[in-house]
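Researcher: Sequence recovery benchmark, item below. Answer with residues only.
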């Protein structure tokens, strides 16, 4: 006979396979029949009020004439009770449980409907196989069934509900569910499990979390995870109130240059200072001005506005922050220095512009002077160069150009001539004098006349004699 029917299509639990030894050997052949009984797992969890299906399969290798299936139930410290059985396809139930348990042979699976807490215990299935007159073999398996109520969504409560002061007060967080059996709890902070420490401890079932004392590090979102064998639920996030601070008191400004605790502000600027610190509840702020060994409260609140033209060259301030719950306070001191940086920038720009204008003017003057000197010097050089190369015989021809005898007043072309003392020495032209082209010093024995008028040859001789005297 082949194996009985297996699990129902809708029930696919994890299987645990066990092979049972034969209890009776085939005497003639001296071999085992190989009967096996398979159950899904050693423990099955059920929900109270719902149906529970226990799938069972069996198989053997030797042909059999009859197959008997028996289900027994046993509570701890009691003897097993008969529930129902079958031989081949005929079911023989216990009259006490005929409406609660069901089996459809040759399928050995058992259905329990509905499930109650009293149904929790160990279920035993036994299979007997008759090997066509050659003897009977049997095998059995056990399944532990638990019955629970599903957990409802947990709710977290804190004590005290008003919160606690860091390093002083304590907090207790309690997780509770409206329904559920055999519930265990786990605590999460910012989605990470909370571990036991010197300041964190738990109750036996972890349903209560004690924090003593609280610190700023305990700020965050706490959740409770409630679970049992048939499911789990998460609570809403809860952020307990923890009072702390002030921490990190700082002063900032929208104007000026800050170096350490000194603010440098331009004269005429309106400056706003902001004081802030990490604290719960928010701090109470006040501003103190120190001037000439005296102090005075000048403002309340986190902001201070100062008109720099009303301040001295240097003024000291203090921002005080006070937490009225923790009783702690903090101070931040700073100095405001007033400068004329804005005016200096304008003056510097004016000086730079004046320097540029002066430079351009000097350049134009130098350029115009150079052009003037060049225009004066260049024609003289040309004339001197031409006359230096001219022979002495052309002097007479040049004098015929003008009819005037006064060489100092006549306008025309002039040559530079030097006469030595001896009357018999020939006349030689001197080096041209133009601009800075002065020749080396020479010793002459006669008077040097720089200008000679170009006149006719007849008058040149008389004129030369007159000049020689």
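Model:
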């Amino acid at each position: 006979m082949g194996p009985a029917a297996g699990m129902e299509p809708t029930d696919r639990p994890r299987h645990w396979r066990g092979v049972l030894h034969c209890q009776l050997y085939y005497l003639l052949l001296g071999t085992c029949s190989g009967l096996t009984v398979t159950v899904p797992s050693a423990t099955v969890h059920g929900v109270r009020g719902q149906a529970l299906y226990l799938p069972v399969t069996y198989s053997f290798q030797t042909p059999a004439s009859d197959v008997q299936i028996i289900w027994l139930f046993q509570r701890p410290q009691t003897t097993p009770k008969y529930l129902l059985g079958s031989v081949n396809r005929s079911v023989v139930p216990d009259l006490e449980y005929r409406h609660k348990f069901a089996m459809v042979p040759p399928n050995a699976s058992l259905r329990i409907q509905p499930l109650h807490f009293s149904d929790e215990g160990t279920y035993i299935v036994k299979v007997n196989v008759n090997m066509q007159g050659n003897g009977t073999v049997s095998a059995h398996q056990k399944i532990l069934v638990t019955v629970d109520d599903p957990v409802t969504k947990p709710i977290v409560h804190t004590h005290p509900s008003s919160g606690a002061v860091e390093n002083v007060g304590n907090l207790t967080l309690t997780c509770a569910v409206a329904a559920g059996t055999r519930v265990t709890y786990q605590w999460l902070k910012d989605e990470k499990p909370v571990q036991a420490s010197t300041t964190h401890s738990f109750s036996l079932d972890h349903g209560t979390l004690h924090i003593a004392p609280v610190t700023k590090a305990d700020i965050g979102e706490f959740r409770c995870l409630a679970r049992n064998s048939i499911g789990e639920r998460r609570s809403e996030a809860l952020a307990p109130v923890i009072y702390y601070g002030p921490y990190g008191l700082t002063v900032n400004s929208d104007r000026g240059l800050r170096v350490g605790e000194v603010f440098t502000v331009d004269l005429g600027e309106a400056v706003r200072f902001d004081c802030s610190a990490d604290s719960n509840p928010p701090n109470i702020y006040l501003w103190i001005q120190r001037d000439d060994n005296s102090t005075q409260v000048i403002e309340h609140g986190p902001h201070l506005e100062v008109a720099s033209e009303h301040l001295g060259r240097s003024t000291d301030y203090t921002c005080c922050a006070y937490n009225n719950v923790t009783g702690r306070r903090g101070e931040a001191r700073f100095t405001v220095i007033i400068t004329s940086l804005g005016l200096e920038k304008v003056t510097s720009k004016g000086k730079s512009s004046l320097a540029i204008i002066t430079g351009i003017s000097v350049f134009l003057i130098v350029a115009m002077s150079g052009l003037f000197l060049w225009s004066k010097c260049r024609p003289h050089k040309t004339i001197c160069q031409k006359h230096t190369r001219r022979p002495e015989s052309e002097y007479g021809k040049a004098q015929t150009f003008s009819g005037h005898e006064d060489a100092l007043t006549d306008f025309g072309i002039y040559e530079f001539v030097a006469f030595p003392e001896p009357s018999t020495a020939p006349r030689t032209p001197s080096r041209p004098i133009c601009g800075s082209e002065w020749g080396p010093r020479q010793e002459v024995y006669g008077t040097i006349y720089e200008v000679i008028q170009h006149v006719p040859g007849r008058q040149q001789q008389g004129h030369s004699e007159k000049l020689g005297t």
